[in-house]
Amino acid sequence: MHFFAKTIPEIQPEIIPVNESPPELVTFDVGGMKCAGCAKAVERQLMQYSGVISACVNLAVEVATVECQPGAVDAEALAKKLTDNGFPSQSRSGENQREAEAATIERRGQEIRQQIKQLTIALLLIILSGLGHVLGTKAPILTNIWFHWGLATLALLLPGRPIIVDGCRSLWRNAPNMNTLVALGAVTAYTASNAALLFPRMGWECFFDEPVMLLGFILLGKTIEQQARRRAASALQALIALQPAKARLVDFKLPSLDLRSEELPLNSTSEVYNPQYIEIPADRVRVGEWLQVLPGEKIPVDGEVCEGKTTIDESMLTGESMPVLKQPGDTVAAGTINKSGAVVMRATRTGKETTVAQMVALVQAAQTRKAPIQNLADTVAGYFVYGVMAISVLTFLFWYFAGTHIWPSVLLGEWAMGIGHGAMGIGHGALGMGNQLSVTDYQLPITHYQSPLLLSLKLAIAVLVIACPCALGLATPTAILVGSGIGAERGLLIRGGDVLERVHQLDTVVFDKTGTLTTGNLTLTDYLPIFQNLELDLNSDINVGNSPDVCSTIDGVSASAVDSKLLQIAAAVERGACHPIAAAILLEAQQQGLPLLAAEDFCTEPGFGVSALVEGRRVFAGNAQWISEQGVAVATQLSGSMEGKTAVYVASGGVLLGVIGLKDTLRPDAKAAVERLRGMGLRVMMLTGDTASAAAATAQQLDLTAADVLASLRPEGKARAIATLQAQGCKVAVVGDGINDAPALAQADVGIGLHCGTDVAVETAQIVLMRNALMDVVESIELGRATFNKIRQNLFWAFGYNTLGIPVAAGILLPATGILLSPAAAGAFMAFSSVSVVTNSLFLRRGFRG
Question: How far from 27 is each of 40, 368, 764, CA to CA, in Å?
Answer without folding.
Answer: 16, 10, 21
